Amino acid sequence: MPPNIPTYPVASQSPVNCWQCRFFATSWDPALPYSCKLLGFKSRSLPSVQVRQLDGRECQGSQPKTRPAPQARQVSASRQ
């Protein structure tokens, strides 16, 4: 391969899924229904698709959603 052509590593991870990202949100605007809180924009398509089209790379800021720890249920006195 000629030395002036850059080589990029092949991405080993799967494409970003906005629905599982903590920064993804849906907006009230029907014309721009999807939003990215990290990058601060709304769009007609999923933010990860917009980022890939504009930047040529997968979203670098995607983080999985965090779930709260399950709380122990209390049994009412009448059920004991």
Give descriptors for this structure.
3-stranded antiparallel sheet, 3 strands, 80 residues, 11% helix, single chain, little secondary structure
Structure description:
By secondary structure, the protein is largely without helices or strands. The protein has a domain at 15-59. The chain has one helix at 47-55; strands at residues 24-26, 34-36, 41-43. The longest helix has 9 residues, at 47-55. The relative contact order is 0.18.
Present the secondary structure layout.
Elements lengths: L23 E3 L7 E3 L4 E3 L3 H9 L25
Antiparallel strand pairs: 1-2, 2-3
Structural class: little secondary structure
User: Could you tell me how far the N terminus lies from the C terminus, measured between alpha carbons in angstroms?
Assistant: 75 Å
H/E series: EEEH
Task: Count every beta strand, where a strand is a DSSP E run of 2 or more residues.
Answer: 3
Low-confidence stretches: none
Please count the helical segments.
1
So what's the overall shape? elongated
Question: Main sheet: which strands, in order across?
Answer: 1-2-3
- Radius of gyration of CA atoms, rounded to a whole number: 20 Å
Instruction: Tell me the major beta sheet.
Output: 3 strands, antiparallel
Report helical residue fraction: 10-25%
Beta-strand portion reads 5-15%
- Provide mean pLDDT, rounded: 83
Quaternary class = single chain
